[in-house]
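#struct-help
A.M.: can someone run this one for me? Single chain, 79 residues.
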Amino acid sequence: MDSTGKVQIVDSSWYLPLPLKEYAMSRVTVYFYSDGWVPIKYCSLQKAILLSDKAKLEGKEILVFPPDLDPNNFSNSFN
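D.P.: on it. Structure tokens below:
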């Protein structure tokens, strides 16, 4: 909702609600999966969202994680 009380709708392919504006410049790590999670880029959350959207257009999938979270440390526990 904006300051006028109107609900703002964001067009995004993301399934979860987009983060608040103040987190857009937060640092994240972008990963892809190839026999394990491989970090491919550190960037801002805003750039990672754009990169994810571009990857989906190419038929690829990437995932975004906080920089201090390594998905390799928890993904093996589910196998």
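A.M.: thanks! The first helix runs from residue 45 to 57.
D.P.: also worth noting: The mean pLDDT is 76.
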